[in-house]
C-alpha cells in the first residue's frame, strides 16, 4: 500500500512539473511572439557557447528523424573530461560513471549501454578496456573515457534509425566526428591547458590539448592535434560484495523450510569455540534454544533469513591515471564536386592504482550472532540486520595494485563525389585496433581464527563495523591459507579489431532522392585471462605443493604491511613481490577460464554484410513543407564464437585407486552461426507553422546477443565457489520495434521547446535459468576439487566438502515475452535576452521519463537494467562581453542494476540510489574584454560542487551495497585560439 501511495505522489509531482514547464513555456513564447517591433533594426552577433547551441537547434530542426547534436564550442566550454560526459546533456541519454565520478558508458532511451551503437567518423569502433571498477565490459558497450572532447567537432545521437544507418543499436546510435582541417579555413591553432585538483587526493594533476590546422587554396588541408591528461585520483568508500545469511543446521532451526530465501553462505558453529569471549562457555552447544536466548526478541525465522554483509569493508583507491590522444587528418578538394579525406587517431591510457580495504568476513565465516536487531517484520521473505554483536569473527585485508594500459589506433579514408547535379557517390574504408593489459595481483592476510575477535555492527547509510582488534596494527595479521588468507596472480589481456568498407550512391535532389548502398564490417574481440595463483600461494605458504598454512613468510607478513591512506593498512608490494618471485610467476602465468573480475576467456568474430535502399524527399502539404525518409536495410551476420574449455582427461577413468590423475585437457572450442535480419524504417517531419515542427518515426532496430553469454563453455570464478555460469550459444539478437512522435517549437537562435513520446517493443530479451546441482556435477565441464584455487577449496570445505556442497548454475535463454519501454522527452533551450534587461542569460532543461512493462513468458520481475525512470539536466548560463558562467544540475532517479538471485538469494537484486550532481564552469575571454587579438581565455570549473556520494543497495534500501565519495574537483585553465 505504501509503495502505491509513493507512486501516486511521484506521478502527481511529475505531472505538476510538466504543467509548470508548459505554463512557463507558453508565457515565454507569448512574450517573444508579442514583442513590439523595434523602431530601428538591431543586429545581435552571437558567438561561442550560444552560437554552438544555435547550431544544435538548427541541426535538430533540419533533421527528418529524431536526433540531437553537440558542436565544438558546446563541447569545449564545459568541464567534461571525455565524450561520455558531453553526451550526458542530450535528452534521453544517461551515463554510467566510474567510482571517481568520471563518465564511462552511455545509454539511450531506457535500454542498457550494450544497446547503443557507437561510431567513430561513421564507422564502428571497439575499445578493449574493461569499463568501470569491478566491471567486466564483456558485452557490447564501448568505453568512452579514452576519448577527449577537445579533438572532436560534432557529436550526434540518432534515436530513430534510417536504412542507411549501421545496424546494431536497438536504442540508438552515437556518431563522433573528429576534427578536420576545413572545419576552420586558413590557419587555425588552439591551445588549452588545465590544472586539476581532486579534493580527496589533495594533489594537482593536469590536462590539455593542442590543435593546429591549415588549408591551402581551398584545396588542401592538414590538421594535427594532441590531448593529454594526468590525474591524481583518490576515492574512499564502503563495499560489501553482497549480503548473505546463515546456513543453519537442523539443530539450529528445526523448521523444514529453513533458509527459504536462499543464500546460506556462512555457518554458525555447532558448539562454542575456544576464545569466543562475550561470556560464552566453550563447548556449549549452539542450537535453536541458544540462538533464541542470545538474540532476545527475534524468532528463529528472523535469525535464519536476516542478512549481513558478505565482506563489509571500508576501502580506498588511489593513484594516477594518464592518457594521451593524437589525431591527424587530411582533406583534398580538387573541385567543388570531389572531396577526399583521411582521419587517423592514436590514444593510450595508463592507470597505476592501489586499492586496499579491511573486510569483516561474512561470506564463509563462522560468526556467532548475539543481540541482533533486524528490520523487515517477520523476515519470511528476508530482512536486514540493523545491529548486533558477532563473536568468533575474522577480518580479511585485501590489497590489490592495478597496472592497466589500453591503446586504440584507427584510420578511415573516404571520399564524396558529386558526379552530376543529381548523382552523388560516397565511400569509406575503416580500421581500428585496440589492446588492453592489466595486472591485478592480490595480497590478502587475515586475522587468526579462534582468536577472540568480536564485531560490533551498526547498520546505516554508511554502516559502522568496529571490533576489539586493532586492525591498523600490522601485528594483528597473518597470511594463513588454511584460515582464508590468500595471494593471487591475475592478469587479463584483450584485443579488439574493427575493419570494414561502405559505399552508397544517391540520385535525385532535395525534392526527391533515392539512395542505395552496402556495408561490410568485421568486428573481432579476444579476452584472455591468466592465473598463476596456486603456484604463488604454494610458494608463499612453504614453497611446496598443496600447502595449507601460514609458512614462515605468512607469519612474517607484518614486515610487509605499511600504513596506507584513510587509516587503512597497505602492502609494500615491491618488497613483497621481490621476496616471493612474483615477476617470474606472472610472466609464466597460464591461460585461465576467467579473470578476477569474472570476465570469461573468450573470442568472437562477427562479419556482417548490409544492403540498404532509402528514399528521401520534401513535398508541399497545405503550403507547408513535409520532409520524409523511408527505406529498408537487410543485414547478414556470420558469428564465430570461441571459449577456452577444460575437460577431465578420459584416461583418469581407468586409473587404479590412489593414482595421481592426469591434468585436465584445456583447449579452445569454436562454433559458427549465421542469421539474417530485415530492418525497415520511415520518418516524417512536417512544418505545421513557421516555427512549429511535427515529427514522427517508425522503425525496427536490433542489437546482437551478449558475446560473453554466447560462449560454448562454463565460468566458475567465484572465490566462494557457489555459482557457475554456462554459455548459451543459441541466443538470438534483440529486436526492437520503435514508435516516436514529437512536436518542436523554435523561438529563434538557440531557443526551442520540444516534446517527444516514444515506445520500444523489445523481443528476444533473456532470462536466467538457475539450477542447484551438487558440486560433483561440474566434473563434466572439467571442474574438480583438485583444480580449484585454495580459496575455492576452502569455501567448499566450509559447506561440507566437495561431496556435500551444492552449486547454483546459471544459463540464459531467449524468452518469448515482450518488453515495452515507453517514455517522454522534454527539451527546452531558452535565451532570456527579451525578458531581462541584461543580455546573455539563458537556461536549458532536458527531462526524460521512462516506464517499463514486460508481458508474456519470462516477464515476471524482468526489467532493463540501469535505466532510471526519471532523469534531467538543468543548466543556467550567462555569456556576454567575454564572460561565460554556467551552472549545471544533473539528476538520475535510482534504478535496478542487476537481475535477481544475487549471492544465491532468490529475490535479491542490486539497485542504485538517486544521483544528483551540480557543476560550475566559467570563462573570461581576455581577447574580447580587452579588444586584443590572440589574448587567452581563462577558465575556472568545479565538478561535483555538492560533494555527491554514489550509493547502491542490495534488495532492501537499508542494505548498503556500495558507497563511494569521489569528492569535488577544481580545474583552473587557460585557452587560446590564434
What is the compact description of this entry?
This protein has a domain at 64-177: Ferric Hydroxamate Uptake Protein, Chain A, domain 1 (Beta Complex), CATH 2.170.130.10. It is 12% helix and 49% strand.
Number of discrete helical segments = 13
Separation of the first and last Cα atoms? 64 Å
Taking the sheet with the most strands, its summary is: 22 strands, antiparallel, barrel
| Class based on secondary structure composition and strand pairing | mainly beta
What is the β-strand count?
Answer: 47
Runs in which pLDDT lies below 50 for 5 or more consecutive residues are 1-46
Residues in helix, %: 10-25%
- Name of the CATH homologous superfamily of the domain at 64-177: TonB-dependent receptor, plug domain
CATH architecture of the domain at 64-177: Beta Complex
Main location: membrane
InterPro entries: Beta-barrel_TonB, Beta-barrel_TonB_sf, Plug_dom, Plug_dom_sf, TonB_rcpt_bac
Pfam family, one: TonB_dep_Rec_b-barrel
Protein name: TonB-dependent receptor
How is this structure best described in words?
Residues 449-945 form the TonB-dependent receptor-like beta-barrel domain. Residues 1-33 form the signal peptide. Keywords: Cell outer membrane, Membrane, Receptor, Signal, TonB box. This is TonB-dependent receptor. InterPro entries: Beta-barrel_TonB (IPR000531), Beta-barrel_TonB_sf (IPR036942), Plug_dom (IPR012910), Plug_dom_sf (IPR037066), TonB_rcpt_bac (IPR010104). With 978 residues, the protein is mostly beta strands. It has a domain at 64-177: TonB-dependent receptor, plug domain (Ferric Hydroxamate Uptake Protein, Chain A, domain 1). Helix content is 12%, strand content 49%. The protein contains 13 helices and 47 strands. The chain has a 22-stranded antiparallel β-barrel. Strands 11, 12, 15, 16, 20 and 21 form a six-stranded mixed beta sheet that branches. A hairpin with a 2-residue loop joins strand 40 and strand 41. The longest helix has 33 residues, at 2-34. It is globular and about 95 Å long. The termini are far apart. The relative contact order is 0.12.
Amino acid at each position: 500500500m505504501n509503495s502505491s501511495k509513493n507512486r501516486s505522489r511521484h506521478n502527481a509531482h511529475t505531472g505538476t512539473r510538466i504543467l509548470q514547464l508548459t505554463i512557463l513555456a507558453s508565457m515565454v513564447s507569448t512574450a517573444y511572439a508579442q514583442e513590439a517591433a523595434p523602431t530601428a533594426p538591431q543586429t545581435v552577433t552571437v558567438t561561442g557557447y550560444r552560437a554552438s547551441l544555435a547550431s544544435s537547434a538548427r541541426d535538430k530542426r533540419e533533421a527528418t528523424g529524431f536526433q540531437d547534436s553537440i558542436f565544438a564550442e558546446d563541447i569545449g566550454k564545459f568541464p567534461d573530461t571525455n565524450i561520455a560526459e558531453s553526451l550526458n546533456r542530450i535528452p534521453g541519454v544517461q551515463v554510467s560513471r566510474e567510482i571517481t565520478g568520471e563518465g564511462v558508458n552511455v545509454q539511450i532511451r531506457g535500454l542498457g549501454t550494450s544497446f547503443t551503437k557507437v561510431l567513430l567518423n561513421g564507422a564502428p569502433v571497439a575499445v578493449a578496456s574493461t569499463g568501470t571498477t569491478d566491471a567486466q565490459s564483456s558485452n557490447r558497450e564501448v568505453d568512452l573515457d579514452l576519448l577527449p572532447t577537445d579533438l572532436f567537432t560534432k557529436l550526434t545521437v540518432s534515436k530513430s534509425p534510417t536504412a542507411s544507418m549501421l545496424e546494431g543499436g536497438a536504442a540508438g546510435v552515437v556518431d563522433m566526428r573528429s576534427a578536420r582541417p576545413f572545419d576552420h579555413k586558413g590557419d587555425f591553432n588552439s591551445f588549452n591547458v588545465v590544472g586539476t585538483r581532486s579534493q580527496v587526493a589533495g594533489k594537482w594533476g593536469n590536462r590539455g590539448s593542442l590543435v593546429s590546422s591549415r588549408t591551402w587554396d581551398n584545396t588542401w588541408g592538414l590538421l594535427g592535434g594532441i590531448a593529454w591528461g594526468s590525474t591524481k585520483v583518490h576515492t574512499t568508500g564502503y563495499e560489501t560484495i553482497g549480503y548473505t545469511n546463515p546456513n543453519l543446521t537442523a539443530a539450529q532451526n528445526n523448521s523444514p523450510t529453513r533458509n527459504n530465501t536462499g543464500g546460506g553462505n556462512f555457518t554458525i558453529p555447532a558448539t562454542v569455540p575456544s576464545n569466543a569471549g562475550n561470556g560464552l562457555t566453550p563447548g556449549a552447544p549452539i542450537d535453536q534454544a541458544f540462538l533464541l536466548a542470545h538474540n532476545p526478541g527475534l524468532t528463529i525465522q528472523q535469525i535464519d533469513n536476516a542478512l549481513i554483509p558478505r565482506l563489509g569493508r571500508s576501502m580506498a583507491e588511489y593513484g594516477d591515471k594518464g592518457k594521451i590522444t593524437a589525431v591527424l587528418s587530411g582533406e583534398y578538394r580538387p573541385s567543388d564536386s570531389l572531396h577526399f579525406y583521411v582521419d587517423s587517431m592514436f590514444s593510450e591510457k595508463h592507470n597505476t592504482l592501489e586499492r586496499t580495504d579491511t573486510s569483516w568476513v561474512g561470506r564463509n565465516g563462522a560468526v556467532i550472532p548475539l543481540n541482533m536487531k533486524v528490520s523487515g517484520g517477520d523476515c519470511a521473505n528476508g530482512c536486514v540486520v540493523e545491529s548486533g554483536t558477532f563473536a568468533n569473527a575474522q577480518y580479511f585485508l585485501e590489497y590489490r595494485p592495478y597496472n592497466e594500459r589500453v591503446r586504440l589506433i584507427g584510420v578511415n579514408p573516404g571520399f564524396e563525389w558529386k558526379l552530376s547535379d543529381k548523382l552523388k557517390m560516397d565511400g569509406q574504408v575503416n580500421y581500428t585496433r585496440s589492446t588492453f593489459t592489466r595486472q591485478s595481483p592480490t595480497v590478502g592476510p587475515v586475522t587468526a581464527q579462534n582468536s577472540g575477535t568480536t564485531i560490533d555492527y551498526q547498520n546505516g547509510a554508511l554502516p559502522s563495523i568496529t571490533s576489539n582488534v586493532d586492525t591498523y596494527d600490522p601485528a594483528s595479521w597473518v597470511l594463513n591459507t588454511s584460515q582464508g588468507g590468500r595471494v593471487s596472480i591475475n592478469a587479463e589481456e584483450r584485443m579488439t579489431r574493427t575493419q570494414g568498407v561502405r559505399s552508397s550512391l544517391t540520385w535525385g535532389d532535395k525534392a526527391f532522392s533515392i539512395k542505395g548502398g552496402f556495408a561490410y564490417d568485421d568486428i573481432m574481440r579476444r579476452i584472455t585471462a591468466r592465473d598463476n595463483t596456486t603456484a604463488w600461494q604454494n610458494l608463499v605458504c612453504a614453497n611446496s605443493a598443496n600447502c595449507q598454512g601460514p609458512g614462515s613468510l605468512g607469519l612474517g607478513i607484518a614486515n610487509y604491511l605499511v600504513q596506507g591512506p584513510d587509516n587503512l593498512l597497505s602492502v609494500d608490494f615491491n618488497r613483497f613481490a621481490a621476496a616471493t618471485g612474483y615477476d617470474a610467476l606472472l610472466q609464466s602465468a597460464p591461460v585461465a577460464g576467467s579473470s578476477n573480475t569474472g570476465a570469461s576467456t573468450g573470442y568472437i568474430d562477427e562479419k556482417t554484410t548490409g544492403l540498404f535502399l532509402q528514399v528521401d524527399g520534401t513535398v508541399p502539404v497545405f503550403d507547408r513543407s513535409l520532409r520524409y525518409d523511408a527505406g529498408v536495410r537487410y543485414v547478414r551476420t556470420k558469428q564465430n564464437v570461441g571459449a577456452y574449455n577444460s575437460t577431465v582427461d578420459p584416461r583418469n577413468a581407468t586409473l587404479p585407486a590412489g593414482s595421481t590423475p592426469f591434468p585436465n585437457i584445456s583447449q579452445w572450442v569454436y562454433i559458427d552461426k549465421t542469421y539474417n535480419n530485415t530492418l525497415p524504417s520511415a520518418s516524417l517531419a512536417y512544418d505545421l507553422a513557421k516555427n512549429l515542427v511535427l515529427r514522427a518515426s517508425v522503425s525496427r532496430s536490433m542489437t546482437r546477443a551478449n558475446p560473453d553469454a554466447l560462449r560454448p563453455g562454463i565460468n566458475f570464478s567465484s572465490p566462494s565457489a557457489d555459482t557457475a555460469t554456462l554459455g548459451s550459444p543459441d541466443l538470438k539478437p534483440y529486436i526492437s520495434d520503435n514508435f516516436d512522435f514529437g512536436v518542436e517549437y523554435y523561438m529563434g537562435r538557440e531557443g526551442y521547446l520540444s516534446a517527444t513520446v516514444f515506445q520500444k517493443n523489445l523481443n528476444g530479451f533473456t532470462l536466467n535459468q538457475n539450477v542447484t546441482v551438487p558440486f560433483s556435477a561440474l566434473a563434466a565441464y572439467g571442474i574438480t576439487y583438485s583444480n580449484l584455487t585454495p580459496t575455492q577449496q576452502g569455501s567448499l570445505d566450509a559447506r561440507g566438502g566437495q561431496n556435500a556442497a551444492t552449486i547454483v548454475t546459471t544459463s540464459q535463454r531467449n524468452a518469448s515475452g515482450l518488453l515495452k519501454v515507453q517514455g517522454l522527452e522534454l527539451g527546452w533551450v531558452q535565451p532570456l535576452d527579451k525578458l531581462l534587461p541584461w543580455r546573455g542569460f539563458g537556461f536549458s532543461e532536458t527531462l526524460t521519463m521512462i516506464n517499463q512493462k514486460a508481458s508474456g513468458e519470462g516477464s515476471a520481475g524482468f526489467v532493463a537494467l540501469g535505466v532510471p525512470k526519471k532523469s534531467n539536466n538543468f543548466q543556467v548560463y550567462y555569456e556576454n562581453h567575454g564572460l561565460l558562467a554556467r551552472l549545471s544540475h544533473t539528476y538520475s532517479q535510482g534504478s535496478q542494476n542487476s537481475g535477481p538471485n544475487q549471492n544465491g538469494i532468490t529475490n535479491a537484486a542490486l539497485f542504485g540510489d538517486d544521483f544528483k550532481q551540480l557543476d560550475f564552469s566559467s570563462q573570461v575571454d581576455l581577447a574580447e574584454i580587452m579588444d586584443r587579438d590572440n589574448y587567452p581565455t581563462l577558465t575556472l570549473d568545479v565538478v561535483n560542487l555538492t560533494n555527491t556520494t554514489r550509493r547502491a543497495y542490495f534488495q532492501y534500501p537499508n542494505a548498503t551495497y556500495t558507497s563511494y565519495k569521489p569528492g569535488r574537483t577544481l580545474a583552473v585553465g587557460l585557452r587560446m585560439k590564434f
